[in-house]
Amino acid sequence: MTTTETLSTQVCEACRADAPQVSEAELAELIKQIPDWVPVVRDGVMQLEREYTFRNFRLALEFTNKVGALAEAEGHHPGILTEWGKVTVTWWTHAINGLHRNDFICAAKTDALT
Q1: Structure pTM?
Q2: Which domain holds residue 99?
Q3: Mapping DSSP to helix (H, G, I), strand (E, B) and coil, where does residue 42 land?
């Protein structure tokens, strides 16, 4: 079993406004487990982002719907931008304005949808 599979089999925990953001050390370790994801900072908020490419809009939309179903199942919702031939998914935890372990779990589960 790979480390990504380990992350993708975990379940998101309910996140409160006082939940801790991942530390720099945790970020460095967790990002190794989802190597296609990039940490980005937008409006001062650390987020995880990945762009997926597809042959056409229909396939991109099908993937978007899978990500939406995953988000509902986990109770954790990303930013999703669907365009012709690509989908950009951005995970972060709104309640803490940053990254939580849940974001890495959901990123790994998103990878498993492809």
Answers
A1: 0.91
A2: 3-10+21-111
A3: strand
Q: How many CB atoms lie within 10 A of CB 28?
A: 11
CATH code of the domain containing 31 = 3.30.1360.20
For the chain, helix (H) and strand (E) counts, in that order, are 4, 4
46-95 confidence digits (pLDDT tens) = 999 999 999 999 999 999 999 999 999 999 999 999 999 999 999 999 99
Q: How far apart are CA 40 and CA 88, in angstroms?
A: 13
Rounded alpha-carbon distances, angstroms, from residue 69 to 3, 72, 106: 23, 5, 12
Query: Rg (Cα) of the chain, in Å, rounded?
Result: 14
Q: Which of 63, 33, 61 is nearest to 48 (CA)?
A: 33
What's residue 72's pLDDT?
95
Number of structural domains, the chain? 1
**Is 91 among the domain residues?**
yes
